[in-house]
């Protein structure tokens, strides 16, 4: 205010006391229009228990103090803007050599995800000699690690990193393990499977807590629902599914109105039928005849339909092939398959042939798998009938939770 401006009138000085209870004042301006009229406006940027950008008007004469709030539309717009800013969480994503390609696809999904590398080295005796460049640079950051426990030989070195990262004064830690290993057999009831899943869950439950609390675990389509109870209090498991990727792909097919979903056994039906309830359903089961175990259709009709066999994982592929034979014998026009985790030990994916133009007895029209098992993706890429449905977008979204 210029030095020649007249002093503030006494009635303003008395009203100024009534404004002193407000918490924070910014952007204040005083306009003196003439000797008889004075206006004081104060924009309040932070006002306890009230939305921002309120203003106070003090006019000359006997008029009271006016507390003006912004319009509901402005408030809603400001609230939405603030909400959108707050929901974006910046994440430093580390990865192992096997998951590098998937990590790059995840980072491409969001500008809020920054890739960080690790120097994977070993001592002469074969034990891990790992180095995290610029470890101090991740202090106070949200950190995630994209793991792949494809074989016992790589689990130990990755656990070394997983146990070290939360200790670097990071804000939060998320372990992304797309495929949670459960052993080598196809039946969760086998003792080997239970022991493998339980032991790994208990090992991960001992990950040190970060400054933000327990570790978050993101995994997809666990083999048995009871696995969610194997983890201790230091792990917050987030169970995701690859089924939405399959549903999007099915909608793109020219015969999408003729799709039926087949489950090779009751276990697959329990896992997935609620997510796929809009499609006609076929349920198969395994029966033993002598020394052989064959698959038969328990309920549903395959005749004239494009039948998609859905399961969580495939190993040798024997069950899927037997299911394909039963559906072809029942008159299916086309047969395809989907599994979230294509494990395929000993290159067993070679057992699956392409149908060569709609001959379901000879092979599959499509075989969809996700990129949860990076080693398999490298082997089957661009080989019919295989198509890869990437989990990158789903993982990027899960990292924002």
From TrEMBL:
Would you say which domain of life the source belongs to?
Eukaryota
Q: Does the keyword Transferase apply?
A: yes
Question: Could you tell me the EC number(s) of this protein?
Answer: 2.7.6.1
A GO biological process held by the record = 5-phosphoribose 1-diphosphate biosynthetic process
The Ribose-phosphate pyrophosphokinase N-terminal domain sits at 92-205
Q: Which reaction is recorded as catalysed by this protein?
A: D-ribose 5-phosphate + ATP = 5-phospho-alpha-D-ribose 1-diphosphate + AMP + H(+)
**Keyword Chloroplast applies:** no
Q: Which GO terms describe its cellular component?
A: cytoplasm; ribose phosphate diphosphokinase complex
Q: Which GO terms describe its molecular function?
A: ATP binding; kinase activity; magnesium ion binding; ribose phosphate diphosphokinase activity
Q: Which Gene3D superfamilies match?
A: 3.40.50.2020
**InterPro entries linked:** Pribosyltran_N, PRTase-like, PRTase_dom, Rib-P_diPkinase
Mind telling me which SUPFAM superfamilies this protein's record contains?
PRTase-like (SSF53271)
Key words, A-Z? ATP-binding, Kinase, Magnesium, Metal-binding, Nucleotide biosynthesis, Nucleotide-binding, Transferase
Q: Where are the transmembrane segments?
A: none
Which Pfam families does UniProt cross-reference here? Pribosyltran, Pribosyltran_N
Q: Which residues form the Phosphoribosyltransferase domain?
A: 235-341
The similarity comment for this entry is: Belongs to the ribose-phosphate pyrophosphokinase family.
Name it. ribose-phosphate diphosphokinase
Q: Which organism is it from?
A: Hibiscus trionum (Flower of an hour)
